[in-house]
Amino acid sequence: MLKKLLSPFQIGPLTLPNRVLMAPLTRSRASQPGDVPSELNALYYTQRASAGLIVSEATQISRQGQGYALTPGIYTDAQEAGWKDVVQAVHAENGHIALQLWHVGRISHSLLQENGGAPVAPSALIAKNTQCFVIQPDGKAENVATETPRALALEEMPGIVAQYRQAAVRGKR
User: Which three-class secondary structure state does DSSP give residue 5?
Assistant: First the structure.
């Protein structure tokens, strides 16, 4: 069993050195301001480059899609450049990494949203007994209860699809 786990594996065009996949873990290490992947992110992932494939921490496709403070995005030029540095560092160690894209929907808080707006979701239903990680105005980091989201209008959906598309384009670059 161990021999098979450590044997090369083909996924599409990639030949992975082994069948070990590193699951995504939210690390809350993005630099501020701007939720930009940093040298700390690069160090974290290069330390794990021997895995067959690393699946990155969830990366928001827009500010609206953020549900936890200090998590990286992929919707600005600075964030894209930060991820490029991370990927280059992982590749320098002969590692493989895939970017996990996300929009958290209702698992968010107004402290994470542009201009303190309400989180958005398919419906205006709060995620009961659920928390998200925020930085309070006084600088204190803490988990707080999610807030009731604003229901998305049907005409807003193409915009979110476009955000995913643009995030994928940035990630591929």
Answer: helix
Global pTM? 0.94
Q: What is the pLDDT of residues 25-34, one digit of tens each?
A: 998 999 999 9
* Count of C-beta atoms within a 10 Å radius of residue 113: 20
Residues 27, 57 contacting (CB under 8 angstroms): yes
Find tokens 């990630």 and name the residue: 171
Per residue, the 3-state secondary structure of 50-68, as one string, reads CCCEEEEEEEECCHHHCCC
Kindly compute the dihedral angle of the four CA atoms of residues 154, 156, 161, 166, in this order, to the nearest 10 degrees: 170
Contact 93, 49 (CB under 8 A): yes
Q: In the chain, at which residue ranges do the beta strands (DSSP E only) sit? A: 9-11, 14-16, 21-22, 53-60, 97-102, 120-121, 131-135, 141-145, 150-151
Residues contacting residue 56 through CB under 8 Å, at least 6 positions apart:
24, 45, 86, 97, 98, 99, 100
pLDDT tens digits, residue range 39-54? 999 999 999 999 999 9
DSSP label at 107? S
Residue 145 pairs in a beta bridge with 131
